[in-house]
Design goal:
- The protein is of the alpha/beta class.
- The protein is built from 30 helices and 34 strands.
- Strands 1, 4, 5, 6, 7, 8, 9, 10, 11 and 12 form a ten-stranded mixed β-sheet that branches. Strands 14-13-17-16-15 form a five-stranded antiparallel β-sheet, with helices on both faces.
- β30, α26 and β31 form a beta-alpha-beta unit.
- α3 packs across α8.
- The longest helix has about 55 residues.
- The N terminus is likely disordered.
């Protein structure tokens, strides 16, 4: 069975993790070396079986094969550790959530593979990593591209429950729309069936299950996510057991078994290629002379065997020169006797990897054991090829482990010496530390690779051009030009602008490009192409022999649309703020104005009763009352607009409500205008104040009447309508839900867009002076909003107007909200009323009104005074009439205290404040008696009897 190769980025990350594996292992061994030998119970005669938990269906790491056996990289690695450490283990593969739960509850001792994270490290102890893996983003074909994990924000994501990416998504609030599964195959099956937008699954298990399950409609989108370190894990504090697994892992690394398992299951990592030209360029000056000196040394050695006595001084001098040259070039020398197996490593050779001369013996194993696990196989293969016909040159780069645990890059070269039978008997060579050169090469490679990836995957259109006065030719371009002009970056290289764009647009681009390179200035401009908007910046690249230009272009279509949308929303916000300002103004004056109107209308009403029918002052007082009533209506219209009108909502059938008012409406519009009524059958119920229905229709019909010059027609219709979310997304002013639609249309003069934008503003009117206050449509707007509805207006000059009002459907059982009228005449009144009001003038007026109605009245200007009077009063108090808002105590709290003294006490609240203020004090609840200021003596008489009779 084969598995897909990892991406280049993941391979490089894996190489880095493998490099640091030995360091981590040494660290753990040092830490655990100080732990007391407390695991005798594990290794002694009473040997405990270690339960190892792992994840099922997670190939190639741990899974059940077709034979029903537990297998995989992590499984084989665990068994090998158990073998070398003499541990008895039992492996249990379950779903990932169950494996973690079993570890937490102590049913397993160790988990054979968990990705490391800082949050997990707070509750678990981790071994050094034995592999790394990356999660990939899987999607159905033709799904939107994903360039980073941030593109998943607010998407519906399928992820394994408790997996590291599950933790990551929750921690970074990337999405609250998660579909959780227990295994990777379940996640991919869900995605293939159409569930979710994307699935986050470990890369290699994901590819395996796509192939195994034949999920042909799924592929990966975007780059792999960040690599995660795969480790053995125990509960916090179980360091003794973890230390044994770490020790076993280290042994497998030393023996090479870990690499064998790795290559079998995860694939072989190829070593980074060698740039031999650079090697020659930077090292020839040192290496070639050293090789010459080395060859000379060999020649001198053989000659001196015959002429030792004669040439001792010359040999010593030559060796000293060679030593100085070798030391100066930081070159390590090695000399391998192939017959005895003994190797001479020079002090400089040992110093390159941090050891003193006496610390490394002359054995082959000293060299091989220090090779990086990833370089071992390839390096040994080159050595074996050099020792066998046809005697390939020995020249190889590899990493060797330094004494401090790091790895150093070494360039090693060697030459063979043969005997008379042409058999190799000796190999001599050199070691050169090229770590810094490799770092430079890797940095350069990564820089080039990153630039290449940037050019390939950047959402920005990037290009470099050579420019003349008549031509602008593409030298380099990013691949995403396919989206803009239908050709990739590679396809447009070498083409001029006339070959890519229309003649006019090409001429403009060429002129702009020449202006940039000839003037040496940066050019910023916005352009339109094929219905899309782009922002471009161009700048010159300084070259003596060519006029080069670089630039980048960004698609700003969505941004411009968003700006237009933002402007519309800003206009709507400003409109709402204007409306709210008037509402606050209305609410602010309502209380004081209502108090004053109470005084004016109350005393005028009582004065009128005191006059004879023939008295000439009656007409004057009636005018005062009429003006006061008009003032009350103006205040109520303002409060209706501000959605602060005090209402008593009831469950209504609009068909019945409209039919009750049709007669009055026909009188309003006159005989020259037809009023058509088209009710819908089976109309849904609404819940609102009946008087508000009257206000709506009266204002809309009067407005329609004034729009018709001579004869015409006004139509009132009702209907049931429902809007879903998709409909509302394409109709800005609509809200999803079920509504009763009330439509008033006319065939009058209509309105233009400018008038339509202002029709709901208070005091805005197109009528002549004295013909209207500008509060009619503002009142309609406020009533609709107060009842959680919305209104849509369609009108054009000369084509009439249509007002569609949408009131929310009421689905609760119908309530009996009708009040039975109570007779106020012919009653023997014996009740005592306690009247509490902080405005002394209103207190005096209320006392007079109640006494004229026949009640015994106690008055108090403050709540404290009312409590004192109640305690001192020897008789019964039947009714408390109290203002809601008072300085010392609100009316609701006062009522609670007085009902302790008088349990049968009835309560009537009164206020001139707006509904939103009164609601905060709980006096608009059902079955609470309330009277709004200003009120007449008749209104007061009815409300008092209603409260006393309740």
């Amino acid at each position: 069975m084969t598995y897909p190769d990892s991406s280049p980025n993941v391979l490089r990350q894996l190489a880095r993790w493998k490099t640091s594996l030995f360091i981590s292992t040494v660290f753990w061994l040092l830490i655990f070396s100080i732990v007391p030998a407390a695991d005798a119970g594990v290794t002694g005669s009473e040997k405990k079986q270690i339960i190892v938990g792992g994840e099922i269906n997670y190939p190639p790491y741990s899974y059940i094969d077709r034979k029903g056996e537990q297998t995989g990289f992590s499984v084989e690695l665990t068994k090998a550790i158990a073998r070398v450490m003499g541990i008895d283990v039992q492996i249990r593969l379950t779903s990932w959530p169950e494996a973690r739960k079993a570890l937490d509850e102590g049913r397993v001792d160790i988990i054979l593979g968990m990705f490391y994270s800082e949050d997990r490290a707070k509750i678990y102890d981790f071994s050094p990593p034995f592999s790394i893996n990356s999660d990939s983003i899987f999607a159905r074909r033709n799904s939107p591209a994903v360039k980073s994990i941030e593109d998943l924000r607010n998407r519906e994501i399928i992820v394994m429950r408790g997996e590291v990416m599950h933790d990551y998504i929750i921690k970074h609030h990337l999405s609250d729309r998660l579909l959780l599964t227990d295994t990777p195959d379940e996640a991919l099956r869900l995605l293939a069936s159409g569930k979710g937008d994307y699935a986050l699954v470990a890369q290699m298990p994901g590819f395996y299950w796509i192939k195994e399950l034949k999920l042909t409609n799924i592929n990966t989108v975007g780059p792999p996510l960040e690599p995660f370190k795969n480790c053995f894990v125990v509960k916090k504090g179980n360091t003794v057991l973890l230390s044994r697994f770490v020790e076993g892992l280290n042994i497998l690394n030393q023996t090479g078994e870990h690499r064998i398992f790795y290559e079998k299951w995860l694939g072989v990592l190829e070593p980074v290629g060698t740039n031999y030209k650079n090697f020659v360029k930077y090292a020839a000056a040192v290496i070639v002379p050293l090789l010459i000196l080395l060859a000379g040394s060999l020649l001198w050695t053989r000659t001196l065997r015959i002429m030792v006595a004669q040439r001792t001084k010359e040999l010593q001098k030559s060796e000293e020169s060679l030593s100085r040259a070798v030391n100066a070039g930081n070159v390590g020398i090695w000399d391998w006797d192939l017959r005895t197996g003994q190797i001479f490593f020079s002090p400089q050779w040992k110093k390159q990897i941090g050891f003193e001369d006496h610390e490394i013996a002359g054995r082959y194993e000293e060299w091989e054991s220090r090779l990086h696990p990833n370089d071992l196989a390839a390096t040994v293969a080159v050595l074996k090829a050099s020792l066998a016909p046809p005697w390939h040159p020995y020249n190889v780069e590899f990493r060797m482990r330094h004494k401090d645990g790091s790895f150093r890059w070494i360039l090693s070269m060697g030459a063979l010496e043969f005997d008379e039978q042409n058999q190799p008997v000796r190999m001599m060579g050199s070691h050169i530390d090229i770590t810094e050169r490799k770092k430079t090469e890797e940095a350069l490679w990564e820089s080039n690779e990153m630039f290449s990836l940037f050019m390939q995957h950047s959402p920005i259109y990037i290009y470099i051009k050579e420019v003349t006065p008549t031509q602008s030719i593409v030298l380099q371009a990013s691949d995403n030009f396919q989206v803009m002009i239908g050709m990739t970056g590679r396809e447009i290289v070498g083409k001029n602008m006339a070959e890519l764009f229309s003649p006019e647009f090409a001429a403009k681009i060429t002129a702009d490009d020449w202006a940039v390179v000839s003037n040496g200035e940066v050019l910023k401009l916005d352009e339109e192409l094929n219905g899309r908007s782009y922002s471009t910046i161009k700048f010159p690249l300084v070259r003596e022999d060519k006029n080069l230009l670089a630039g980048y272009t960004i698609d700003i279509t969505d941004r411009k649309l968003a700006e237009e949308e933002r402007k519309k929303l800003q206009d709507q916000l400003q409109q709402a703020q204007r409306m709210e300002s008037v509402g606050r103004l209305a609410g602010g004056v309502a209380h004081d104005f209502n108090n004053m109107l109470s005084i004016i209308l109350g005393y005028a009403d009582m004065s009128l009763d005191a006059l004879q029918p023939s008295d000439p002052l009656r007409e004057n007082i009636q005018e005062i009352i009429s003006a006061g009533q008009r003032s009350v209506n103006v205040v109520r219209q303002l409060l209706a607009f501000a959605r602060k009108q005090t209402v008593a909502p009831k469950i209504l059938d609009l068909k019945d409500s409209v039919e009750d008012i049709l007669k009055m409406l026909r009188r309003l519009i006159g005989e020259d205008i037809d009023l058509l009524w088209k009710p819908a059958s089976d109309l849904w119920l609404v819940k609102m104040d009946l008087s508000q229905i009257d206000q709506l229709l009266a204002n809309l019909v009067i407005n329609a009447r004034d729009a018709i010059k001579d004869v015409g027609k006004i139509t009132i219709e009702t209907a049931n309508v429902a809007f879903d979310m998709s409909y509302c997304e394409s109709h800005r002013d609509f809200l999803p839900g079920e509504y009763v639609q009330l439509t008033v249309s006319d065939d009058g003069c209509g309105m233009d867009k400018e008038i339509l934008a202002n029709i709901f503003e208070p005091f805005f009117t197109t009528k002549e002076l004295g013909k209207g206050t500008g509060l009619g449509l503002a009142t309609v707007y406020g009533i609709v909003k107060q009842n959680n509805g919305f209104i849509k207006v369609d009108s054009e000059p000369g084509k009439g107007s249509t007002f569609r009002i949408y009131l929310p459907r009421h689905q609760a059982a119908e309530e009996n909200t009708e009040m039975t009228a109570l007779p106020v005449e012919d009653l023997t009144i014996v009740e005592t009323v306690l009247l509490v009001e902080d405005e002394k003038v209103i207190l005096k007026l209320g006392k007079i009104m109640l006494e004229r109605l026949g009640y015994t009245v106690l008055t108090a200007n403050t709540p404290d005074e009312a409590i004192r009077l109640s305690r001192e009063h020897t008789g019964e108090i039947h009714l408390l009439i109290t203002d809601v808002i008072m300085p010392e105590m609100n009316g609701r709290d006062l009522a609670r205290q007085l009902t302790i003294l008088y349990p049968k006490l009835k309560i009537l609240f009164m206020s001139g404040y707006t509904a939103n203020v009164i609601e905060q004090h709980g006096v608009l609840d059902k079955d609470i008696h309330f009277i709004q200021k200003p009120f007449s003596r008749k209104d007061l008489a009815f409300k008092v009897r209603e409260a006393l009779s309740s």
